[in-house]
Amino acid sequence: MADLPELVAPYEFLLGTWRGEGVGGYPTLEADFRYGEEMTFACYGKPVIEFHSESWSLDDERPLARQTGFWRPVGNERLEVVLSIASGLVEVFYGELVNGPAGVHVELTSDVIAHTETAKQVQADKRLYAVRGGKLMYAMEMAAVEQQLQAHLSAALDRVS
Which domains does the chain have, with CATH numbers? Predict the structure, then answer.
């Protein structure tokens, strides 16, 4: 991308719109589930990455989750992330770009999670994002409703733009 801000450049591999399928589960749910998801990472010229995600049931197409927010690169490959989630949560994450044995990926860990009065009580959220074999791979762990931090969602999404 021409004129990409210097702080955003290390995250260029994420930019674009991605679409695909994932699987979710949690001990408080009756069964694991499959879902579709579209996720967009965009830079609008400032040193910020705009983030949007929406998911739906693959069984009946009903909407599931939506979240939107901003990833703010702050230097030294560190990130501050603020997300607003339609289910009544606002989350602040801190993270970093990691150059691991399989390649570069982003790791985010929640610092603050605020809830509306009727929202599910989530105590912690951890996320990993990587591009492998041309697919955006992500995994989310969650500690909620008196459960320990554990796997909740994972997906493989194809770039659509």
Answer: 9-159 (2.40.128.20)
